[in-house]
Design a protein that fits this description.
DUF302 domain-containing protein; 28% strand; 6 strands; 141 residues; TT1751-like_sf; globular; 6-stranded antiparallel beta sheet; alpha+beta
Length: 141
């Protein structure tokens, strides 16, 4: 399995993102992500089909822009890591659950997997967990 990989820190509206690009298909990356989450002993709480929703509502909101070919966000939590970061500061509850997205865009080749970056300090435990999961999903660990 070939994993063309590039780590990009892309600015987002209110926060930074950690992203990885791969030449793997969307379905292969999603399968890898689901497997990596389960292999870590975690449970996917929710999958948001963001790409489908945006495409379904595109005309309703008066747009002709196709943002994604496919785009899903996977939400999950870790009892161990969540307890660790919330014992350090109970207000870290604001970051839970944790999300990893997978997307393909009509104007690019390959698939992007990523997650938001977290503040310095205790939340770096979450960032390290998500980075390991994302890298494992595309075979870059």
């Amino acid at each position: 399995m070939t994993a063309a990989l590039a780590c990009l820190a892309l600015p987002a509206t209110a926060q930074d993102l950690v992203t990885y690009e791969t030449d793997q298909s969307f379905d292969d990356v999603v399968f890898g992500l689901e497997s990596a989450i389960l292999d870590a002993g975690l449970v996917i709480d929710h999958t948001s089909h963001v790409g489908e929703m945006l495409e379904r509502t595109r005309a309703d909101v008066g747009s002709d822009v196709v943002l994604f070919d496919q785009a899903d966000v996977f939400s999950f939590c870790s009892a161990v890591v969540s307890r660790q970061v919330m014992e350090a500061d109970p207000m870290n509850i604001a970051y839970c659950p944790y999300d990893v997205f997978v997307m393909t865009r009509p104007d690019t080749e390959g698939t992007t997997i990523g997650f938001r970056s977290y503040p310095e300090g205790p939340m770096q435990a979450v960032q390290e967990m998500l980075d390991g999961i994302a890298r494992s999903a595309i075979g870059a660990d």
